[in-house]
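General statements about sequence and structure are easier to judge against a single worked case. For one protein, we set the task of working out the structure tokens from the amino acid sequence alone. The sequence in question and its structure tokens are set out directly beneath this paragraph.
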Amino acid sequence: MKMAELMDIDFKLLTILTRMGIPFGFGDKTVEEVCLDNGVNPETFLLIAAVYVYTDYKPTREVLENADLPGIVAYLRCSHTYYMDVILPAMSVSLERMVKPGDTRNLQIIKQFFNHYRDGLQQHFDYEEKQVFPFVKAALDHRKADTPASGSGDEDGHLDVKEKLQDLKSLVMKYIPAQCDQQEAYRVLSYIYSLEEDFAKHTFIEEEILLPGAGLEGDNLSAREKEILVCVAKGMLNKEIADLYNISIYTVITHRKNITRKTGIKSVAGLTVYAILNNLIDMNTIE
């Protein structure tokens, strides 16, 4: 397939070109030719493209075993740079222009929330740099490596970042004063929707391709998911679980969906049996 034909399938694929350092002007060359001309692994390029194009894409074990993990790490790092150096600065400028000139109070409130989101995103990327990527490198070097550990709430990092972005979207769409610049509000929301969708792809690439490819199987429950599972087996409600771990109900629901996806078990009774069989809970503690 020609590279130009692939780009026509979904315009969002254009961002993959820029992050992989592939310039435009490739004429009628094939995807493989363009990738090789620019030092990019064609299989890695097509793998990431598949994530963007197919909503329900699920990589096979063969794909994971043959994945170019250093290339995927490089792509994720380029994504970090794109978010922090391109999208967020542009969003920040539009937020300032959106607020009515002279309305320092509303501007201060919105900017404070935005800065909190930006700092949380940077914290999560720092976690990936210090925990996730070294784990992958150690696995590639055939060294013994510890599984990426959570720190400062980073086990829920992806969820926390996603929630804050959704909150910012709601604040702009539902609660800004009517006198705010509506065109700038539209730009801000466009940035948010674009970042929201792209970050979901970023998360998928890390959790469903990078880590499983490095030997951290995708069907293993995380430490937090095991904690949530135990609570579910004990009959706790979502709100009770959220209050116990100081997280939102949305985060609890997302964890429960992930538990069901990874285990293939949907009912509370079935999850309770799973927890008992895997020594996560003592059968005698179940009422």
